[in-house]
Structure formats: structure tokens, C-alpha cells
Design brief:
- By secondary structure, this protein is mainly α.
- The chain has a domain of 72 residues.
- Helices cover 49% and strands 0% of the residues.
- It is flat, with a radius of gyration of 21 Å.
- 5% of the residues are buried.
Length: 105
């Protein structure tokens, strides 16, 4: 929330606090671009829109490179704009899943 909407010192009511938090969560998930997920919004990454956004970004960068080649050092898109692979808290053991399939057969 440090980059988000300013947190008020106090709320006039519980309803005001809830409305503020709803707006905060909406902003965080649908508008704030996170560096850890390639400057995509969590909603775009979750709902599968990130690839389309990345494609548009790549086209925009290519057009900018073509128009102003002296401003760019490379023809590749920045790696920070790439969506990272899956992240796990408790990654399933691939061998365990394979063993379960073999045992069931």
C-alpha cells in the first residue's frame, strides 16, 4: 500500500473503511503494475491477459526502435518486462505424482 492511495488518518465509519479498502484492493489488483511480475497487474497475470499486454508492449518498443534507433542499445525487449514462471509455496513432487499414476495402473 506504500505506492497506493493515501491511507487516511481515521475513518468516519466502518462503511467508509470498507469502501476505502475495496478501492485499495481494486487499485492494487487491476491498476498497479508490479515489478515482480514483469510490470503487469495481478489481474492481468491471473486471468491470462499478460501475454497480450506483453505483445502490445513489444510492438510499441519495436515501433519506437524503428523511429529512433539511436535511442536504443539493443533490439531485444527488456527482461524485466517478461512474466516470470510459476511460483510455488509447496511445489508438488513430480516423482510422487508419477508414482501415484504407476501404482494405480
Amino acid at each position: 500500500m506504500k505506492y497506493g492511495p493515501t491511507f487516511p488518518e481515521r475513518f468516519a465509519s466502518l462503511g467508509d473503511a470498507r469502501a476505502f479498502m475495496r478501492a485499495c484492493v481494486d487499485w492494487y489488483n487491476h491498476h498497479h503494475q508490479h515489478s515482480g511480475i514483469g510490470f503487469h497487474t495481478p489481474a492481468n497475470a491471473h486471468y491470462g491477459f499478460a501475454d497480450g499486454v506483453a505483445q502490445k508492449r513489444s510492438q510499441t518498443l519495436a515501433a519506437a526502435r524503428a523511429k529512433h534507433p539511436h535511442r536504443f542499445h539493443t533490439t531485444n525487449d527488456a527482461e524485466i518486462l517478461a512474466l516470470p514462471g510459476p511460483a510455488w509455496i509447496n511445489k508438488p513432487d513430480e516423482n510422487t505424482e508419477e508414482a501415484a499414476i504407476l501404482t494405480a495402473a
